[in-house]
Amino acid sequence: MLSSTERDTEITGWALAAGLGDERAAELFVGATYDDVRRFVAHLTADTRGAEDLTQETYLRALPSLRRFAGRSCARSWLLAIARRVVVDRYRRASARPRIADTTDWLGAADRAQPRQLPGFEESVALADALRALEPGRRQAFVLTCVMGMPYAEAADVLGCPVGTIRSRVARARRDLAAIWDGGSEGVDGREPVGSRGVVAA
């Protein structure tokens, strides 16, 4: 069983080899990172059904760019940074189009489509609802470190900010989540949940 560091080294090796044209390495790279990318975009958007499209779009951008990946950072961090940009771009495009449905409606539809009989379903819904109420920067930092288990330094690479900023955002996210769970459905400090206005910040 590989440690997290050894696994990241292996993934980065596959990315470098794929950039040199190794098709098998590209397959291994995608297989090793696909679930992480999908979970990341699903948590950022609170749209589990749309996460598949965003994940595919991430790889459509990332794979042709592997030839320029130099391995100065972990390949997983590099890939999740691309996934974040894909999500931001999707919401920028959506905000430029006329709205055809209320956000609450499609979030509700996605929620109703999930299999409720699975273990942990209620807890995952509660977490998704709470994450929607967080300020976008705090949500991103919390998802990377506390949901996906990423080290703070790696999360800082993904989000392009200092480690100290990640620590601060995670601490504030934890405080906000505690307030949400203690105070009901109003959101942080009684404000309307952020998820009803915007999903991610640029």
TrEMBL record:
InterPro entries, sorted: RNA_pol_sigma-70-like, RNA_pol_sigma-70_dom, RNA_pol_sigma70_ECF_CS, RNA_pol_sigma70_r2, RNA_pol_sigma70_r4_t2, RNA_pol_sigma_r2, RNA_pol_sigma_r3/r4-like, WH-like_DNA-bd_sf
Domain RNA polymerase sigma-70 region as annotated: residue spans: 31-95
SUPFAM superfamilies with a match to the protein in the record: Sigma2 domain of RNA polymerase sigma factors, Sigma3 and sigma4 domains of RNA polymerase sigma factors
Keyword DNA-binding annotated: yes
Keywords assigned by UniProt, alphabetized: DNA-binding, Sigma factor, Transcription, Transcription regulation
Transferase found in the keyword field: no
RNA polymerase sigma factor 70 region 4 type domain ranges (all copies): 125-177
Entry's family note: Belongs to the sigma-70 factor family. ECF subfamily.
Listed name of the protein: RNA polymerase sigma factor
